[in-house]
């Protein structure tokens, strides 16, 4: 089938694309800058690059509209503080307009777990707002909601790596005791491909995780154990969001804007709802330890 892949140069998109090609699909890889995208020799004739910025009004005459499925893997967490929510909604609205002018039969959206509806951070609220916009597309939406994705290149995982590798002793904010349910990148790809053009999953959203509930502190110590590093973490009851953000910014390779958005989200428990998706797709969950080792 023919698939439109947005975010093709992003963390998840770069891992999803070769799997889709291997499965025999024809890919329209969307990127804001063609020069950032390299088509491998083995992809020629199977992958076409489409240069499009969904923060601008799409010019339908310039874009292909004959595709079966579209993946929405766009986010703006690195945008200026206070601007990302507006940008994410605008991108979603322009994407919806593009979808409604196409032959697409299903839209698949990878988003965040948003179950604590009364305490959502601006980032998670924005993700939910985007989901609501995509739900108004002519084609049915399948939304997959994930917490921390474990794998090299994932922003959250790279922060864990940076912190543990650099700091033998950590004086950390109390949100390290917040609970989350991580998921390995290989499982994420299995879910993204598993729901492809399966009508049962249309107009539904599903939480995806490996089933383990960990605190962020336990994730840090879990990484340290895999790397055979002795690490000591002491949490303090008072550390402002701003100070927490600077702590991440100076210790890790993340930008300050991303640090602020992540800190806001890390104060909320991210626990997946129970559902039968894992069983229906015959997916074997990868433990957090296995995902870190890989």
Task: Give the SSE layout.
Layout: E1 2-5, H1 11-22, E2 26-31, E3 47-51, E4 69-72, H2 84-100, E5 106-112, H3 122-134, E6 141-146, E7 149-150, H4 155-166, E8 169-173, E9 179-180, E10 183-184, H5 185-194, E11 204-208, E12 214-215, H6 216-226, E13 232-236, H7 241-251, H8 256-266, H9 277-280, H10 288-293
Parallel strand pairs: 1-2, 1-4, 2-3, 4-5, 5-6, 6-11, 7-10, 8-13
Antiparallel strand pairs: 9-12
Q: Can you describe this structure?
A:
- This protein is of the alpha/beta class.
- The chain has a domain at 2-146 and 183-208: Rossmann fold (3-Layer(aba) Sandwich).
- 36% of the residues lie in helices and 19% in strands.
- The chain contains 10 helices and 13 strands.
- The strands form 4 sheets. A 7-stranded parallel beta sheet has the order 3-2-1-4-5-6-11, with helices on both faces.
- Helix 1 (11-22) crosses helix 5 (185-194).
- The two termini are 31 Å apart.
- 42% of the residues are buried.
- The mean pLDDT is 87.
Q: If helices are DSSP runs of H or I spanning 4 or more residues, what is the number of helices?
A: 10
Looking at the structure, what is the overall shape? globular
Number of strands: 13
Strand content: 15-25%
Rg, Å, rounded = 19 Å
Supply the key terms:
294 residues; Rossmann fold; alpha/beta
Summarize the structure.
This protein is an alpha/beta fold. The protein has a domain at 2-146 and 183-208: 3-Layer(aba) Sandwich (Rossmann fold), CATH 3.40.50.
């Amino acid at each position: 089938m023919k698939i439109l892949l947005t975010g093709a140069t992003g963390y998840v998109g770069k891992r999803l694309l070769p799997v889709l090609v291997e499965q025999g699909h024809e890919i329209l890889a969307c990127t804001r800058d063609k020069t950032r995208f390299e088509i491998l020799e083995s992809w020629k004739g199977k992958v076409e690059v489409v240069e499009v910025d969904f923060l601008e009004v799409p010019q339908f005459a310039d874009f292909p509209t004959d595709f079966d499925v579209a993946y929405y893997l766009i986010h703006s967490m690195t945008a200026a503080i206070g601007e990302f929510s507006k940008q994410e909604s605008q991108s979603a609205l322009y994407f919806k307009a593009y979808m409604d002018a196409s032959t697409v039969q299903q839209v698949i959206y990878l988003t965040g777990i948003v179950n604590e509806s009364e305490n959502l951070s601006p980032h998670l609220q924005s993700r939910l707002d985007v989901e609501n916009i995509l739900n108004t597309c002519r084609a049915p939406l399948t939304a997959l909601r994930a917490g921390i994705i474990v794998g090299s290149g994932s922003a959250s995982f790279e922060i864990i790596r940076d912190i543990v590798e650099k700091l033998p002793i950590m004086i950390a904010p109390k949100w390290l005791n917040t609970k989350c349910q991580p998921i390995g990148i290989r499982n994420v790809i299995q879910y993204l491909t598993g729901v492809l053009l399966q009508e049962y999953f249309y107009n539904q959203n599903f939480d995806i995780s490996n089933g383990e509930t960990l605190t962020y502190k336990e994730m840090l110590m879990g990484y340290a154990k895999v790397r055979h590093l002795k690490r000591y973490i002491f949490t303090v009851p008072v550390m402002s969001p701003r100070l927490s953000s600077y702590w991440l910014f100076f210790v890790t390779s993340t930008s300050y804007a991303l640090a602020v958005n992540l800190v806001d989200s890390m104060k909320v428990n991210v626990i997946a709802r129970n559902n039968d998706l894992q069983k229906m797709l015959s997916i074997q969950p990868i433990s957090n330890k296995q995902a870190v080792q890989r």
